[in-house]
Amino acid sequence: MFILFRECIDMVAHDKDAMDKLIEWQKDIKMRIENDPPARDTRSRSEIMEAVIGVSKPDVISIRNPENIRNKGSGAGKLIKSKREIGMINADKDART
Questions:
Q1: CA 19, CA 8: separation in Å to the nearest integer?
Q2: 15 within 8 A of 21, measured Cβ to Cβ
Q3: Residue 55 belongs to some domain of the structure
Q4: pTM above the 0.70 mark?
Q5: Mind listing the pLDDT tens digit for each residue in 35-94?
Q6: Considering the domain boundaries, does residue 80 fall inside one?
Q7: What torsion do the CA atoms of 47, 52, 53, 58 make, to the nearest 10 degrees?
Q8: Of 55, 56, 54, 57, which is closest to residue 4 (Cα–Cα)?
Q9: How far is CA 7 from CA 1, 3, 4, 23, 49, in A?
Q10: How many structural domains compose the chain?
């Protein structure tokens, strides 16, 4: 339903008169629905969403989360030091003689 409406908007986007007609039609449809509201739908929320979106929920989900992935820190448990930081540490060390 949203795709259909979006396609209509895309077709008349550059024509002001056609866009005005589309807006009037939408207002007319809204007024008709308000004056004569439809009966409550007995379908579940997921069934209604599938009908609105136009895609049904798959029975089997084939996406799997990757294994051995951690979002905190690296595998070594240390932060990567910058070249400047490494240079400062090495400068403090005594040179071998």
A1: 9
A2: no
A3: no
A4: no
A5: 988 888 788 888 888 888 888 888 888 888 878 776 655 556 667 788 998 899 888 888
A6: no
A7: 10
A8: 54
A9: 10, 6, 5, 14, 20
A10: 1
The residue written with tokens 């207002």 in the block is 27
What are the tokens at 18?
């056609």
Report CA-CA distances (Å) from 75 to 49, 67, 83: 42, 14, 20
Q: At which residue do the structure tokens 């795709």 appear?
A: 3
| Owning domain of residue 27 | 1-38
Cβ partners under 8 Å of residue 8, min gap 6: 22
Q: Which distant-in-sequence residues (6+ apart) come within 8 Å of 52 by Cβ?
A: 1, 2
